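EI: anyone free to look at a 355-residue chain?
SC: sure, send it
EI:
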Amino acid sequence: MNSICVLAQYTFAIKHRDNLILVLDCMCPATTMGVTAFKIFMLVWKTKELNGIFDTIKDAFKREVAEKGVSVRKWIPLKGFYSTIFLMSTTGTVALSFFAFPIIFNIQSSIKGVDFVPETMFKSVWPFNHMVTPYMEIIYLYMTYLLFVTQFGISGIDNLFMDIYLHVAALMNILAEDLKSMEKRFLINYKLDSVSKFTKEQNTKFYHEIKRLVKKHQFYLEFCKRVETFFSEIILVHFVSSSFILCMSLMDLLLAPGLIKITYISYIIAATTQVFIYSYAGGQLEEACNNIEVATYGISWYRMDSRNKKLLMKLLMRSQRTVQIKAPFVTASLATFEAIVQAARSYVTLLYTFI
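SC: here you go
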């Protein structure tokens, strides 16, 4: 259903292509609705894979709880919850503005007695006259439905992405903590000093323990690749469209009159938050993987036999390969976030010189 409204808005932009202000005014929400519709479609299409990802995360945390008890709770991220509330607030403000301002302006025109020019929340072209009763009311209700579908779609899908990757990062951090505590536990249990070497029995026990963690690390790396494959199309479309949407909303803010600026201030905050969510999740995963490398490097390898040394070297080399959230041509990272914001600013500066 989103595609019909998006097509009507793009048709309006093509019809009024000589008027930059009108084009920007309809292209910004149209692009956002189109991208969100694509994300919803991809999630519905890949529902089975998504359920598998949920089950894997749930089972992984169940195993950690079984091994460590309630202490694992501190690793479960709450940042995703807070970002959901914030993004819901900003997108809600945008949705309410698009919904309310045309009604306010229509009522204001009627009170002042000026010529009544009916408005819908999104500028669009339809194959019939949608500015007369009852078509205008039907189109307005239809757009209202799509508006709030887009709002909840943005908040739900983007924070779903963030939550999944924050939970994966949490599992990586738990593994890093296990690596740090493993040797300390051996030193305390066997009352070893800072230079004592492991006995044959101790080496055997340490080998089985480190082997278990190496297998767990390999499983998490494979799971990261699986999640990356699942989200690859969404990541690509999200980042490709982000500069475009930010640029258009910034231009709309500069050109919008009066109270309409409130809509685009909220729009810019929401669009920037969307880009930051993906970039932050990528940064957190990369940091968690680096923590495993640091924890492995800190283990006193000189205490151990050659078998344990080789296993530690294998883990160290594997952990040095940075795990990133990638899609074709783009990587979700804070550096990408900075590049997108700078690109949007450059585009706005260039466009503004032509006005």
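EI: The two ends are 35 Å apart (CA to CA).
SC: 👍
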